[in-house]
Amino acid sequence: MASAKYIFVTGGVTSSLGKGIISSSLGKLLQARGFKVTIQKFDPYINIDPGTLNPYEHGECFVTDDGAETDLDLGHYERFLNSPTSQANNVTTGRIYNNVITKERQGEYLGKTVQVVPHITDEIKRNIYQLGESGEFDFVITEIGGCVGDIESLPFIEAVRQVKWDVGVNNFLVIHLTLIPYLKAAKELKTKPTQHSVKQLLEAGIQPDILVCRSEMHLPQDIRKKLALFCNVHINSVIEALDADTIYDVPILMRKEKLAERVLSKLKIANKDEPNLDQWKTFLGKLKNPTDEVEIGLVGKYVELPDAYKSIVESFIHAGAHNECAVNLKWISSETITEENGADVLGNLDGVLVAPGFGERGVQGKIEAVKYVRENNIPFFGICLGMQCSVIEFARNVLKIKDSTSTEIDPKTKNPVIDLMEDQKKITDMGGTMRLGAYPCKLKKGSKVNSIYGKQNISERHRHRYEFNNKYLDKMEAAGLKATGINPETGLVEIVELENHPWFVGTQYHPELKSTVLNPHPLFVKFVEAALKKKKS
Ligand code: GLN
Question: pTM score > 0.85 for this model?
């Protein structure tokens, strides 16, 4: 295909309808027909990126290879498409305005009044075309965050309207995701909210081409007809999106509803062969027919909001399916774990993952959790702060350096086994200044992680300020906590592994950010395998 086709996904009626999953599923279906696809998200908030947002507000912050802190939907794009995203795939209102204001200060608009139209909308479009004009993709799917009618998303919607005239009708398509609520008392599916949200789009100059309708029950023909009539779309472009057992069913549901066929025919693209979804279906088959199950404790402080650990949860789904084993996650608030109750809280688990996190709250409970699983041979996986807690615990209870801690917890500690690097000490800005993105790591020959990865040189994604303090390395290794992954450029410790324990691995990086349906992360796969072994022993 000569130039990229642009597909926009807008949302109406309410948020949380799953625009990210619909975008990812459409992407998957197009990819399964041999097309090259990328998905981009526009977020209407003023933060430059979600890096400074509390996980309680916004869920997990997903980090790309190039070090962008992004919306968690990018995790879905990567997990579905099995291809990496980058900074270009997530743009916020804050970033758009920041770019425009920077250009204004540099004199780029000299003599002009800088306005929402055309300057902000031009900057939005530049971010859309940047992906389309890279020559890498047949389709650029752009998800517009929020709902139509939100004050904040108006400039994005206006930019979408303009794109149609820039690229031509055959290269442009809008999918509107909406809700068809069922009123129990009236025993009726209601179309009015959708009619209203389409009206709002029309007021902004956009006629949606396809309606994807979230619904708890099948849309009968008369409802489809009504939607088509009032929303000005062809009846075969009214697509039903039923609630699914798992998000990974959605591509299959959308295939049944012929979503990709409608997209291709509207964009006048000859229908290629049937999509190849064999591997996807194999994964779903295993996911739905486990032959065993394990119970894994997820110790974290944001457990009230599972979205805060989205990528970890999904990684367990991928790894569980790979092992044909259901992984039941038990969410444990780290603040509830004490020196005394380890056996009650963790004693019956087949494995424990201590989660990433920031700040002092909940750290002591995480350290107690590590102590319990270390002493009781329960498989342990520590990620980022979880790994740092395993180092602190080892220093305190094995090396007997009782006041060991991280300078994140006590900046004045005499024994900072986890500490800030020199270059981090000078930093005062909070946004985008952590160690972010992909860094190389070399694994020690013969280590557990070396055999798990099956190679020595790996690259994994980071998001943290604090690091293992190499001043304590020799003592730790002599006592059995080995540094088995080292950054070859800086000498920083990226992995610790405990000797004489069935499975005890802590990673300074976030392996969960690279697990996909087709490539489950080897550390999660082997951790689940270790939990299964523990259960059977
Ligand atoms: N708060 C720790 C740090 O900044 C760990 C961060 C994390 O778990 N992502 O180093």
Answer: yes
